[in-house]
Amino acid sequence: MAELEKELKEYLKGKVLKARSTLRELINITTEVKNRTLLRAAELIDRRREEIKEANRRDIETAKRMGLSKAVIDRLLLNDKRIDGMIKVLKDVANLEDPVGKIDKMWTRPDGLKIGKMRVPLGVILIIYESRPNVTVEAASLCIKTSNAIILRGGKEALNSNKILTEILKEAARETGFPQEAIQFIENPDRRLVWELLKMEGLIDVAIPRGGESLIRAVSENAKIPVIKHYKGVCTLFVDKYADLEKAYDIVFNAKVQRPSVCNAIENLLVHKDIAEEFLPKMAYFLAKAGVELRVDEGAMEILKSAKLPENAVVKAATEEDYYEEFLDLILAVKIVDNLGEAIAFIEKYGSKHSDGIISENYSNVKKFLETVDSAAVYANASTRFTDGNEFGLGAEMGISTDKIHVRGPMGLEDLTIPKYIILGEGHIRDNFGVPKEWKEEV
Amino acid sequence: MAELEKELKEYLKGKVLKARSTLRELINITTEVKNRTLLRAAELIDRRREEIKEANRRDIETAKRMGLSKAVIDRLLLNDKRIDGMIKVLKDVANLEDPVGKIDKMWTRPDGLKIGKMRVPLGVILIIYESRPNVTVEAASLCIKTSNAIILRGGKEALNSNKILTEILKEAARETGFPQEAIQFIENPDRRLVWELLKMEGLIDVAIPRGGESLIRAVSENAKIPVIKHYKGVCTLFVDKYADLEKAYDIVFNAKVQRPSVCNAIENLLVHKDIAEEFLPKMAYFLAKAGVELRVDEGAMEILKSAKLPENAVVKAATEEDYYEEFLDLILAVKIVDNLGEAIAFIEKYGSKHSDGIISENYSNVKKFLETVDSAAVYANASTRFTDGNEFGLGAEMGISTDKIHVRGPMGLEDLTIPKYIILGEGHIRDNFGVPKEWKEEV
């Protein structure tokens, strides 16, 4: 990849340094000011709705001209409903508790020294995202509330939409006394800027890429700064022998059909052998009727061969690869398992540590599943579709982490902070072996 | 760097896979078994004391033959006191609360869905360390207690010592029913193995390098897996205008002199201008008498010129670089500042976000300092030497993080775990728009 020109480097570093220079002001800003900024931004977005839609229209036109996919254009679109959604996020975040300065715990050592853990912002956060312009508002609102500075790097297809939204956020900041330079938008679409940003160790504290797996791999490969990653969601539901089948039909249907294109939809369904004959035909009927293609193992195929299914039903033999695949579509891989242990082993092997669940009324099986399955979100008797900052009650989310350090699952306000230690003494020292006290007469 | 031979790659991957294969057993192991393993290891170390010292003697001899520095040889040494120290660590860790499975919080959503955060192990942890063989026991004991698998990669100078300690730990594991393969020791001293381990994304969950800044930079540059880093400790104490000077003499002396070679010793001393004339001459006398070389700014030089100092006192003019330097020696950079703001700005510019403190009886200044200074450990009226897992009451420590994600400061048991979400429903779904219920009659 070609080196970045000097002017571009300067432009970029200038933005990051501006963001960084606000950190000391940010740490001392009150929750009141931050909330006022969020609520003012909500007002301004409401008032400047037409302008936003106009900017968005230009992005959509360009996207169409460039032949971008329908899915991208759909994600790009800002209609009144989505604008209302952004307004709601700003108000919700204003209503949530401010984690900054919170002392999670404090204890006293035998010598009277007090040790506490106080939550502080992460610092400068880089977010790299694609198409959806509402991410601009979601990410910025979470950073405003947690006194973090943010570098916004949206997709070039959403340039006009992101630009006006950032302008509005900065306007709200100016009006309410929040440092507007804490919100930086990288306008230049040159991809090399991203790689340059990812090298800024000490200037940017963490990078959060949101997008497809290839974007995230590339970010992770090139970063010299910490990255919080979300690779993919290969989610599985296991219908236990002891499942309440009425609940299971609804939960599996919801987890697959309600919105198949998202990471918390399931890709795999495991069914206990003892209830497969009863459960599978009906479940397959419902799924097939909703247009879901089934890719099933031999045992399931045997059962479904003689089952009543809708005319257009598609049932294929599953390959090994199918179980690893994030379909993001109306496709579901199905497997019959002998027991709970096999289900857990399957998830360990094929899953992506995102969201996995058990449907069972058996206490011990549920307890074992919840404790043993090593995923960011582990469910009992609920749809995996709940893995979402808003659904969990975190307000918005900065992303969903499939990493295993710092945060797992939806990244909310608290996860944008980290405890530092504060230590309160009264002259505490470890051991001076009597000196310098005994030298006091000499001077 | 030359590619690793196929056999070496296989050897390495074999070890990591063995460690990884224990994770499912580890997650279900009881605290009781883990404590028994730790206490049994303590017993075995006590019983096999002579063997350990003999193995260590061979390392020391080789180190001397290779002409390694006195400092390295001192760190390498295992005498009875240090062996007692390892035994104490094992017992202390056994006595600490097990964080695994702990539900930090649980809340109920408006629809009755219950969301909780349950602490789980990180998985497979790679620790890369130098010379000190007690790290083997400290790191392994923390991992045993937190149900993590550990890959130990010690320095080749400590090979025999590390080997026998690992053997003892594994023996304790075997005897008590803890999976011994969860403790893996990489014996082969080839440096390329480290780089290979750092590429094992998905197999190793986090790497923790302990050692000099160059080792840590190299690890961080080469890693494809998350790394928790400790760069350096450029720590500062600020003696405020409102300091109790009697406390200040002791604290500054302790923070510089008690053990200058460690990361939580101070390298910089800031003194408020209004008390400099009274405080500095006496402080300088004490420090100089203990052999500390002072590198001071113009104002301090002016004051010290006419001060009574011990005969062998060394007072030099400070350069800009001195304030950035981690001396790890009896050297202290000194600067007079006009006010609290200047002190905070100094720490922001020159410090390494490790441990910094204020000495002051002024409530508002202390509050402001504690809230504003962005370091892993921020002190009021105590020596920075307390930044240590044991001193903080965390038992042992896996290292001290100067990173800003996952953990800041001493990394104890809790920091070797991470909360996952557990979600308890009773058939909860997001919205199925009435189906498949209405299709139930069809099948």
Automatic annotation (TrEMBL), chains A, B:
Protein EC: 1.2.1.41
Indicate whether Oxidoreductase appears among the record's keywords: yes
Q: What SUPFAM superfamilies is this protein classified in?
A: ALDH-like
Q: In which pathway does it act?
A: Amino-acid biosynthesis; L-proline biosynthesis; L-glutamate 5-semialdehyde from L-glutamate: step 2/2
Which domain of life does the UniProt lineage start with? Bacteria
The cross-references to Gene3D superfamilies, in alphabetical order and at most eight, read:
Aldehyde Dehydrogenase, Chain A, domain 1, Aldehyde Dehydrogenase, Chain A, domain 2
Q: Which NCBIfam families does its entry note?
A: PRK00197.1 (NF001221), proA (TIGR00407)
Protein name per UniProt: Gamma-glutamyl phosphate reductase
**Which gene underlies this protein?**
proA
